[in-house]
Amino acid sequence: MKTFEDLKSQWEEQPQPEIPHEGSKIIMQKINAIQNKQRITNGVLLTTTFVLIGFFFYINAYSNLIVSLGLFLMIGSLIVRIMIEYASIKDLKRMDFTKDAAAFRTDLINYYKKRVTTHYVATPIILALYAVGFIILLPSFKENLSKGFYTYIVVSAIVILIVMVFFIGKEIQKELNSLRQLKSSQTD
């Protein structure tokens, strides 16, 4: 059986975990990168929203209930996503980076959980509502467009949806990996 002195000696001889040089700078860079991606996402979503709003007035969609419903679903889903991203950016800005490591880690874990919920719950619902809105517009497109142009819209919409889901999936994975790294860097 080892004595207390032996245990104490072994404890003191253990290598100490090395604190990363400029660790807080690395964390700030990762957080800034996440914020920039969220701003870019919001820019794209806002542009798409304005195009759809312009399209709504250009085709006098307010005179057709079905077309209005489809466009409102599309525009509304984009606005909800913009608001979610804006709230997320504000949450990041509100984080107090001067807190002690344990408190900051707790804030970071809470932020991480919100982003996971956003990506795995809100995003699929928003994409589904957007797709439903587009599908509601298809009969109107078929009625008012040439067969060739209608086919082009349907095929390109499918291709765009596949590319968009793939792109969104990759971006979500990048963001979640960054958040995991941030979270683990607080535990090291």
* Integer average pLDDT: 82
The structural class is: mainly alpha
Number of DSSP helices? 5
Round the Cα radius of gyration to an integer and report it. 24 Å
Proportion of beta-strand residues: under 5%
Can you tell me about this structure?
The protein has 188 residues and is mainly α. It has one domain (27-187). The chain is built from five helices and no strands. It has helices spanning 4-13, 23-58, 65-94, 101-144, 147-187. Helix 2 (23-58) runs antiparallel to helix 3 (65-94), helix 2 packs antiparallel against helix 5 (147-187) and helix 3 packs antiparallel against helix 4 (101-144). The longest helix is centred in the middle third of the chain and has 44 residues, at 101-144. The radius of gyration is 24 Å and the shape is elongated. The chain starts with a helix and ends with a helix. The model has no long low-confidence stretch (mean pLDDT 82).
Helices and strands in order:
Blueprint (H helix, E strand, L loop, with lengths): L3 H10 L9 H36 L6 H30 L6 H44 L2 H41 L1
Helix pairs in contact: 2-3, 2-5, 3-4, 4-5
Key phrases:
mainly alpha, transmembrane helix, membrane, transmembrane
Summarize the structure.
The protein is mainly α. The chain is built from five helices and no strands. The chain crosses the membrane at residues 40-59, 65-84, 120-137, 149-169.
